[in-house]
Write a structure and sequence with these properties.
Blueprint lengths: L11 H8 L3 H9 L6 H14 L4 H9 L4 E6 L7 H14 L3 E6 L21 E5 L5 H9 L4 E4 L11 E4 L1 H14 L6 E5 L5 H16 L9 E3 L4 H13 L6 E4 L2 H13 L9 E3 L16 E3 L2 H16 L7 E4 L2 E3 L8
Parallel strand pairs: 1-2, 1-3, 3-4, 4-5, 5-11, 6-7, 6-8, 8-9
Antiparallel strand pairs: 10-12
Helix pairs in contact: 1-2, 1-3, 5-11, 7-8, 9-10
Amino acid sequence: MPSSISRKRPTIEDVARLAGLSIATVSRYINATVVVSERSAAKIQAAIEELHFIPQTAAQVLARKKTNTIGLLLTGISGDFFAPMLRGIETRAMEDGYSLLIHSTEIQSESKSPFNKILAEHNTDGLIVFTTSLNDAELKRLSAVGFPVVLLHRSTPQNYEIPYVIVENKNGVRSMIDHLIDVHHWQRIVHLQGPVDHEDTYWRGVGYRQSLEAHGISYDPQLIGSGEFSAAQARIAVQGLISRDIKFDAIFAGDDESASGALMELRMAGIRVPEEVAVVGFDDLNLAAHLTPPLTTVHAPIEEAGYEAVDKLVRLMRGEQVELETLLPTQLVIRKSCGCP
């Protein structure tokens, strides 16, 4: 007679056996009650990943299927960018009666246990993961156990199919730099980059370089500064350019927050915008139209991206098939800071 094969859920005993350690040691690691040695932790983690082990509390929640809660992992919540994104996320969650549980990874537990998590399968039905707020190893673990996850403003790790929502960064930036060169004839264009680990930063940099190359303008590393999507950091970067006597006639800030910082620093230095230096940004936040002068920028559908991410997650939680990538278009918004009337 043919034998039937049943795949039982791995237990803590299985993890201990594979790691070659006691059940008590594995329990301490999982529950973060006592710090275990780095060597033991590495063995336990390797066994957990190989077995796709889920602790009993999380397994019980998975068996119940429902918490009626969507989790949102963020790298931080400061700045004007997050208000429209949260509005889009909350609007879509409320349409289906889901509560929203938010955690910022700026506040991290000292425990190294992979299960000492604020948000995961033990207390949510699915997760929205913003940019770098969750590492690839944990994303892969959640994918392996079939837990619904949607990425926002980042694409899926290689060899995994985790749905994601992003905006068109490259072409939006390229149209911006094309405008500065073609219409205003600026050539010494500073780029204040965002955080280096953000995918948005990478693609905005690609658009910047592609426009320069298309116009036969050499890429100059002296014109690259660190804006970090922060007004304060952008002020420091612009101050450094001025103090080193770097010549420039335009600044492309990686987002509107850093553009506002660049405007402030130029004003402090007595440099007129746009008469002497043009300043442009990205996002089209509410503040952009109210800066002095009003900011030329790239409109990104921030609220829509949040809404689409939750819509995709809700459909995943229902067991529906969803498209892997959602790429939302951006649009150049012309105001006075670039030199246009």
